[in-house]
Amino acid sequence: MVITPIAITDPPLLNAAGIHAPFALRTILELVTESGIIGISEIPGNIQTNQALEAAKSLVLGMDPFHLNVLQHRLSGFFGKESVASRGHTPWDQRKLVHVFSALEVACLDIQGKMLGRPVVDLLGGKMRDSVPFAAYLFFKYEGAGGHLGKSLDPDASGWAAARQLEAVDPAGIVSQAKAMCEEFGFQSIKLKGGAFEPRVETDSMLALYEAFGKEVPLRFDPNAIWKPETALTYGKELEPILEYLEDPVRSQKHMAELRKQLKTPLATNMCTTSFEDIPTSVQLGSEDIILSDHHFWGGLKASMELARVCKTFGRGLSMHSNSHLGISMAAMTHLGAALPEVTYALDTHYPWQSEDVIVGGKLPIVDGAVAVPAGPGLGVELDRERLTKLHNDYLACGLTHRDDEVEMQKYHPGWKFEIVRW
Question: Is 193 an annotated catalytic residue?
Answer without folding.
Answer: yes
